[in-house]
Protein 1
Amino acid sequence: MTEILSATEEHIARAADSLRAGRLVSFPTETVYGLGGNALDDHAVAAIYAAKNRPDFNPLIVHVPDLQTAARYVHVSDAAKLLAGRFWPGPLTLILPRRADCRLSLLLSAGLDTVAIRIPNHPVARALLEASGLPLAGPSANPSGRISPTTAQHVAEGLGGKIDYVLDGGPCKVGVESSVLDLSGTQPVLLRPGAVLAEEIAAVLGVPVATEQNAVDHGARKSPGQLSSHYAPHLPVRLNATGAAPDEILIGFGPAAPAGAQNLSPSGDLLEAAANLFAFLRAADRPGHRGIAIMPIPATGLGIAINDRLRRAAAPR
Ligand code: TXA
Ligand code: MG
């Protein structure tokens, strides 16, 4: 049985007990809901893979409360410190080399010598990290390959029965997963676009940020989890639509979208569109239609992350 708990102090303490007992709890972050388990415990990490039906070659993000805790597990380079100072806590995940004395479960690195680490900026996530005293492995709390959850109800729909609790922190503000930046190689590589933009990272570091496609060691450092089909609704998704066929449901963006269409942001605000994206895809993904048609979203700012998720949602399965 999975219980949705309001995020009171008492409920956070109960969820923390559950985590310390090796069980799984979903918690809100500013990006999407995470599926939390004790990152020091191989059994808990194995249970996360099982609950999500996640392929075991796909490593997990570890959530920690502060930089000091991160430094127990990974080598924090000068570049990492600069970025941490500017963007943590917040929607940025750093891939850093695992320390030789790192006690994190080996399973969560899926055989890599690096760890993905993030300090979240949601008060409930932070309270849970503090109450549990644990580093928390936390992939998005959805069955593998499906749409990430931005409300407690989404989590219960996808993982109900497989976890003890969902801490309800309301809808996630950012709405798309964190930017994932690989700092383990010769140049910084953005493996997944998110709310922290490549140009913001480059400005802080004073060096250009590569993408997986144009990295010098392209191929050597792929994001294992960035499968081309991901975030997939059950219905087929058609991108750059100018309108809907009679049996399609239309998701629009901006003032030009036809009246009556679902609109990610009537005013054309990319922050609002990102926050609405996954909830709109879920709402559109119901029987009675042949597919979901989505109007173009500008590929600037957070629109880069939105278009990345939409391309994967529309990819052949
Ligand atoms: O916003 C987020 O990052 C959310 C919240 C809950 O924190 N979490 C999340 O986790 O999106 P997940 O597991 O769904 O996505 C993690 C991504 C995957 O694409 C995974 O392959 C990649 O990070 N990743 C994890 N560890 C890695 C590593 N050591 N090297 C390269 N990529 C890694
Ligand atoms: Mg995910």
Note: The chain is about 30% helix and 15% strand.
Protein 2
Amino acid sequence: MDQSKIDVLRAKEVPAFGHLIDGKQIPASDGATMDVISPLDGTVLTTTAAGTASDMEAAIASARAAFEDGRWAKQPPAARKKVLMKWADLIEANAMELAVLGVRDNGTEIGMALKAEPGSAAATIRYYAEALDKIYGEIAATPSDILGMIHKEPVGVVGAIIPWNFPMMIGAWKLGPALAMGNSVVLKPSETASLSLMRMAELALEAGLPAGVLNAVTGEGRVVGEALGLSMDVDVLAFTGSGATGRRLMEYAARSNMKRVYLELGGKSPNIVFADAPNLDEAAKVAAAGIFRNAGQVCVAGSRLLVEASIHDDFVAAVTKAAEAMRVGDPLNINTHIGAINSKVQLKANLGFVDQAVEEGGNVVTGGTQILQDTGGYYMAPTIVTEVTRVATLAQKEVFGPILGVTPFETEEEAISLANSTVYGLAGAAWTANLGRAHRMVRGVRTGVMHINTYGGADGTVPLGGVGQSGNGSDKSLHAIDKYVNLKTAWIKL
Ligand code: TXE
């Protein structure tokens, strides 16, 4: 990474963003805008359109019209593939510009942002572009006078509601398979991090995606998000965000057209370290990175450290050392390990979790405070709290910040029972050199992704989906395609 190039990009003025509807950038119908506050220094970066319900309805109508006339869905697979491949190339060609824009908006450290945002988004779009002409229907095992065929058809209009922590990556997880299968999409980016995703959507048009196939509307979740959720003309909602909003989306679906709702709702993922881990030093460093990168604003963050009691004190000391060695600060400095907290609201919530942990008997070993106040931005020291009980708030509620709670265990059974004692089930890890134990942990922990002797890094070839209140349906891999197709049976008498 070239610091001077980043510095040039960070000095650029950011233009005001409008919605993207029917291939055009347009303002909100009532002209209203929202300030975009940069978490780096608390200043106003630019404005976006503060969408109204009627803006959202216009975007949905445009997506519906595009779907019905087949301008995308009826293109030959090879043609759709070409456009999506070109889009991936354009994202890559503009990677640094997109990454810097995104970081100024959401605060992720640039090293991670570059890889996880344009890097991963381009790879995801390319993966589904390459896959789309290899997805076949089926012929059923019927009596000889019947032909039973199973077609995979696009569902129609997909509403994709995206959070602020990795807008481009998570956006691509929905857009890639939805567009590859011929659907139209209406995007609703987060109000606190929309810019890079809006720019990425514009690049899709540049790549040749027909107008109307991808529309994007900014604004408050309770206004434009609700209008998307309640629409009679949206067939699928694909969402990543909080449980509270996920619940609302299910209600919206029930109150409107019973659209399919796929939810990825974060977690309270356990990172379980046994005394027989192959390399405890490595485990400590990875445990720190697994919670503190992107300031803990990661759905799969290893936010609960469960440690075998016999190594508890030494291991906590090693994770603390690793955490204290991580540099917190300006996310656009290439030497920064931990960037900014996305918003003032989120920072306040994090600090509230620390207070509550202390009230509940937790011991703050390091961090626990806001730092770098003189920048005007939102920064927090990586925080480790020990003596966190099974039922403590820190063991039960998703924080989505740089706070690690530590709980000791004595036996494998107790580790599994602790791991499974939340309503969530998104990710997790176990560190052990015992092969049998490793497999027992994979089977025993109720979760979508279980790592062994590592944490994070699972790429686009494998699914990411939650169980319990972490959600349903998977992003990534070929399995994600199922969310964006209908199976249609043709039963033919020969
Ligand atoms: O989430 P919201 P927020 C968790 C994390 C975090 C908490 C709050 O614990 O602390 O959620 O974050 C849109 N109808 N995660 O407030 O509100 C909203 O505009 C339709 C975990 O940012 O769920 C945004 O685009 N849409 C997580 C998106 O929902 C609505 C990532 C997410 O915002 C809406 C982010 C409504 N009524 C937060 N209300 C993960 N799983 O990785 C809001 N939205």
Note: The longest helix spans residues 110-131.
